[in-house]
Structure formats: C-alpha cells, structure tokens
Amino acid sequence: MRIHRLFAAALLAAVSVGLHAQDLATVCRATSSYDLTIRPGQLIFDRPAPAPTQVVLSDGSLTTDGHAVALSDEDQDRLAVFQRDLLALVPRVKAVAQHGVDVTMQAVQQESGSLNLDADTRAELQNRLATHATELHQRIAASQSTHDWHGDVANQYANQVISDIGPLLASALGQQAVSAAISGDLQQAAALRDRASNLAAGFQPRLQRRLQVLRPEIQALCPDIQRLAELQEGIQASNGRPLHLVQIGQ
C-alpha cells in the first residue's frame, strides 16, 4: 500500500512551514537573497554572491565583507531599530511555523481516521505523531539560522518519520486486507488498498487548504516586514551597493 505517501506529504509540509520564505514572498511580497543567522548582539546575513556576501549588524554598526562601514548618526539609529525590530519579528514567525506543525499533525490524525484502524494502532499512531511534533516544535524553537532549513532537511525528517510510522500503518492495513481475503471478501481487500491509495494521493491538496488558516497570521507580519525594508533604504555596503537585506516586490 502507498500509505507512506500521506506521511511524506504531511511531514514535508510541516517542515517547510518553518520560516517559510515562499509564504512570505507570496503573502507579503517579501524576499531576501540572504540567509540570516542570529548570534548574541549580532545579525549575520550571508549569501554566495554578489558582494557583499556577508553583512553584520551589531547595535547600529555595520560591517560588510569584513569592512566597517562609516554611518551617519541617523543611519546608525535606523540600523539599530532594524536589528531590534527583526529580533522581535523572529518569535512571531516561529509561532506561525509552530501552528503549521500542529495543523499538519492534526490533519494526519483526522485523515487516518477514515482507514478504520483498530484502537491500539490509533493510540500508537497518536503517540508517535505527538513525539515527532514535539521534536519538530523544539527544532523550530531552537533554530537561530535559516541555514537550518536548507537542502534535504525536509526529506530527511520526512523519511525519519515515515520509517517510524509507515510500518505501523502498513501492518495494520495489511492485516485488515489479509483478514478480508481469508474470509473470502476480496472486494473488501481491494477496497482497503484503494482507500489507502486515494487517501495518500489526495492528502497534499487537502493539507494545503487546511494550512490556509495560517494566511491571516502571515499577513499580520507584512507591515513589520515592510518597515524593515524602509529602515534599510538608502544605506550602502562598503562597496557602494545598497544593502537590500529585505526587498518588497511590487
């Protein structure tokens, strides 16, 4: 049975909710070519190219690619406010991500309800989902860099959960199908396979509809992100180029 696809879709979506740049770009039209790392007293922005490839903000001071940038008093004040406001925004972004995890895990539980699992399997599934949700919540809470969500992180986490939950469901559904076949009810056995397959195939779009509940929460971030873009306006790196740490599309 292809029930594992349900969980692949679920966990990929859950992980991708964390600090989701695509959602911010879609809802707030906000983008950045930089990754952000938060360290005590510092915001570090980095990217492969073009220069500046590293921008460091620290209490109103600005360093780009290792060179201190001379700033007017006004620009120092603006960057200090930028740093303060961005740090205040981070926990709000994380709160949206945490809510997205909860929505996703609840969706998995509700969707699996249509599989008519036995009581023991339902209880074990709930326990395992709760454990993985807790781990993902902790990972989001502890994250201090967008680098934490690069590359194959989503796939790796999904595979980890699938390897834990997949066999549990496969065993339960397989036993149901075997029991139906042994009893001579081949139609019921086929129906079980089809139900699992259809559930997996349609889960992703249904989950995306559920995740629309996050849209107002993301929209509430937009004015503050717009404010960040305004605060950096006109400030240049050591090479004379605009910082453009945050950009707002038209």
What's the layout of helices and strands?
Layout: H1 4-17, H2 21-28, E1 30-31, E2 35-39, E3 42-46, E4 54-58, E5 61-64, E6 67-68, H3 73-112, H4 119-142, H5 153-182, H6 186-210, H7 215-219, H8 222-231, E7 247-248
Antiparallel strand pairs: 1-7, 2-3, 3-4, 4-5, 5-6
Helix pairs in contact: 1-3, 1-5, 1-6, 3-4, 3-6, 3-8, 4-5, 5-6
Features:
two-stranded antiparallel ribbon, alpha+beta, 250 residues, 7 strands
Can you characterise this structure?
- This protein has 250 residues and is of the alpha+beta class.
- The chain has one domain (4-248).
- The chain contains eight helices and seven strands.
- The strands form two sheets. The protein has a five-stranded antiparallel beta sheet, covered by helices on one side.
- β5 (61-64) and β6 form a beta hairpin.
- α1 runs parallel beside α6 (186-210), α3 runs antiparallel to α4 (119-142) and α3 runs antiparallel to α6.
- The radius of gyration is 23 Å and the shape is elongated.
- The chain starts with a helix and ends with a strand.
